[in-house]
Amino acid sequence: MRGNVRADGDVVIAADGGLDGNLRADGAVVLESGADVDGNVTVATHVMLDSATEIDGNLEAGGDVLLDGDAHVDGNLEASRYVVLVEGASVDGNLTAGDAVHLGVNTDVDGNVTASSVQLDSSATVAGNGTGDATRID
Prior knowledge:
The protein has 138 residues and is mostly beta strands. It has one domain. Helices cover 0% and strands 50% of the residues. It is globular and about 40 Å long. Pfam families: Bactofilin.
């Protein structure tokens, strides 16, 4: 699909689907496996990126953000509450969470991480500065 999307509720981009434009939703957003958005995503509540999904733009959420295995954000990611990156997920940009960040096994952030609490699994990497109480889990 091409063009900007404005939704009053939840948005689901089906598996292997895509959007070439900005997305703004008053509800939650789910990108199913293999889906991608080439544009900025602004969500009033929560965001879930299933495995092998990609956002090529900034992601801003008024709630929590979950990036499942091999999901990728090529831009800054900001969430009002929590951000969780599951094995293989990555962010090429700054990551900011109002409460906490958990970086799982083999996750990567190429930018700064800012949150009250940051938890990193043993093989998680951050190529930038960190702000907040950080804990490394071995």
